[in-house]
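Today's session is about reading a structure prediction critically. Students often jump straight to the picture, but the first step is always the sequence itself: look for stretches that repeat, for charged clusters, for runs of hydrophobic residues. Only then move on to the predicted structure, which in these notes is written as discrete structure tokens rather than atom positions. Here is the chain we will use throughout the hour.
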Amino acid sequence: METRVHELIATLDLIPHPEGGYYRETYKSDLCFDANKERPTFSGRRSCGAAIYFLLEGNNISRMHRIKADELWHFYEGAALSVHVIHPDGTLEEIRLGTDTARGETFQALVKAGCWFGASLPNGGHALVGCTTHPGFEFEDFHMAERADLLNQWPEHETIIKKLTP
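Below is the predicted structure for this chain, in token form.
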């Protein structure tokens, strides 16, 4: 692990994330609402929004998963990060977060609720990003992908599914 990664983990007080990488929640709104009234897939009250730091390094991946909230990604530093998204209609999208806007990288990107997604670093290094969710994230709204299920549904995306579902 490179020195900068150690420094970020220590100074930002990051911990391992179940999907891979490291994270820390930095904000959760005190304003709450009954999310079930807005969308029946939620099981009650939710914060209006939440934010985390997320760090990925080297060959590590963010395993394919989905959540019930929209998630906005923000690029902070490091190497370009690829967020691989399988939309409900089966469309595969690769979003490149980074600083080289002339090459199609972006500083922010949205993954809509219900999409399967994961991330990787195509060129190694590390990437520090932020993620904000609306409504606020709760682990009960998080579902890790099963490789066989995704391959049965979208065999045309076998390469990325196998990469992000070890």
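Discussion point for the tutorial: The chain has a mean pLDDT of 95.
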